[in-house]
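Standup notes
- DV: blocked on the single-chain target, sequence here:
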Amino acid sequence: MKVEMDISSLEKATKSLEERLRILDESNDSMMRDACIYSFKRTYEIGLKMINRCLKEISANPDEIEKYTFYQMIRKAHEESLIAQGVQKWKGFRECRIKVSESFDEKITDEIVASFPEFLGEINHFISKLTGTQHGRL
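- DV (later): unblocked, structure below
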């Protein structure tokens, strides 16, 4: 599937998260961990908006997509093969997004950061579906 959408903001956010994670792996620096968390939040938000926009583009009834809950949107995106993982995995990403705003516990933060490579795999899968090319470095 190739959908004509400007996804440059998602590609830039994804690249930024990938680069910051690579640096974090090399340095294990708390400031870089915080930078990764910021990049994750931005990439997650942009990714959800792009998934929603894409579903509207390919839907026979875009107004129906607008009414979808988070879970309905993710289920539909999975059905359309826009994302590789289903609701449970994206529920986990969503919980990480919420926790990262509420937690100052270093152990929880480290667990959240550990989920970022899998999240990037999902986002890169989505970008690949939109562009018709392989995407991603992790």
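- Follow-up: The helical segments are 8-27, 30-58, 62-66, 70-79, 87-102, 106-114, 116-131.
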